[in-house]
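User: Structure please.
Assistant: Input sequence and predicted structure:
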Amino acid sequence: MSQPIRSKVGKIALVTGAARGLGFAYASRLASEGALVIGVDRSPAGDFVAAMVRAGAPAAEFHRVDVAEERAVQELASAVLAKHGACDLIVNNAGISPHIPFAELTLEQWRRTMSINVDSMFLICRAFVPRMIQRGYGRIVNITSNTLGLVIPNLSHYIASKGAVVGFTRGLATELGTHGITVNCIGPGLTRTPMTEELFADGAAFDEYANVQAIKRPERPDDLIGAVSFLTSDDAAFITGQTLIVDGGLLRSM
């Protein structure tokens, strides 16, 4: 019989974009299930390690890394694998969503969005998947977005990047399925986090979306952690190449 969904004792879990918001919530949940959590972010993390230990991790680490930089990711992987010998679970959460009208969008802004939202997933997976293949085990969750099914202005670059995440996930799932590795996507809706509250300072957007969702309240980070928990568990061993939209039923209304 497989382990209970809430047991990740002995697993090494890496979460990108972990310093705050959704990444911090994902890391906290994995820690509460007993995983040794490695948080990665280009921003400082404050008391990340202490918070993960309080959440239940046997130990935790934080690495300040720009996951869109190839050499930095290679150095991260070398350090993690040398110390722990494995990386069992990956949550590729790092991302940006600057609102820019297409007519004002520069090639530099387009490339930066693609670099952080898509290239980072490629670099992380390329660095850690070979060891997963050697061990015959791995769970990878890539964060996309429900904006793929919506009509939202000023986000053409962001929506394009999140579409690429879905395609990358499906392709990688196809190649890794025979190695005991699953690769899936989660697509959050507009979720209240420090980043989105900066973008939507008046808060009206959260209520606007909530009014047309099936579940009529703004989405919170806690609404997404169950999906991450499940897809990184052994209960999800036969699920791969899928995209799970977690947005309170917003897409069903569009």
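The domain at 12-253 is CATH 3.40.50.720 (Rossmann fold).
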